[in-house]
Amino acid sequence: MSESSYEPRREKYTNKKKRGKKKTFAQELLSTLLYIIVITGIFVGIRTFLFAPVSVEGDSMNPTLLHEDRLILNKVGDIERFDIVVFPSPEDLNTQFIKRVIGLPGDEIEYRDQVLYLNGNEVEESYVDLSQETAEAAEFYNSDFTLASLEGVEVVPEGQLFVLGDNRVNSKDSRAFGFIDSDSVTGSTSLRIWPLDRFGMVE
């Protein structure tokens, strides 16, 4: 093989080696940092706009939710009647409340003889358990009411929600602080992730 025919192949081989040269440390570091930034941005976006973990504090949602239960909060979708929702306390915006939506705009609500009535229809609340309470305690802490007696209106106003805790004898809810703005709801939850022995969908 002549020298003149060998040189082009050598040059081609040398160029290929140059193109396949490893990245410098600085390039590798920059690439890693960009990867971390992208992943972090995706995580923050999901947590901010779609889903987030939330922890239960207190007993106001017993027996459905117990103290220190951990849930996944869904921040998208419409709020429906009987959804469990999280929202800022009307009295302290730094405190988050978790309650059940009982009344939507236009609903007429009445509670009589430990029975809930929505728009004149009796509602069976399987999520409420007063079996451990005396009749006197249930009557005192979970007494009869209507929207008229609480708020002076016949139905839930537009853009508002009426919420109650499942633990009716130990819950600060719309019976105390009135309606909440539907726009103030952070999200709804129906999935418990902790403790593991109670993992699954929430009623």
TrEMBL record:
Keywords assigned by UniProt, alphabetized: Hydrolase, Membrane, Protease, Transmembrane, Transmembrane helix
Coiled-coil spans in chain: none
Protein's cellular compartments: Cell membrane; Membrane
Pfam families linked: Peptidase_S26
Parts of the chain that traverse the membrane: 29-52
Protein biosynthesis among keywords: no
Source organism, top-level taxon: Bacteria
Domain called Peptidase S26: residue spans: 31-194
Keyword Protease part of the UniProt annotation: yes
EC number of the protein: 3.4.21.89
Cited InterPro entries: LexA/Signal_pep-like_sf, Pept_S26A_signal_pept_1, Pept_S26A_signal_pept_1_CS, Pept_S26A_signal_pept_1_Lys-AS, Pept_S26A_signal_pept_1_Ser-AS, Peptidase_S26
Membrane disposition: Single-pass type II membrane protein
Catalytic activity: Cleavage of hydrophobic, N-terminal signal or leader sequences from secreted and periplasmic proteins
Family named by the database record: Belongs to the peptidase S26 family.
PANTHER family per the UniProt record, alphabetical: CHLOROPLAST PROCESSING PEPTIDASE, SIGNAL PEPTIDASE I
NCBIfam families in the record: sigpep_I_bact
Protein name, UniProt field: Signal peptidase I
Gene: lepB
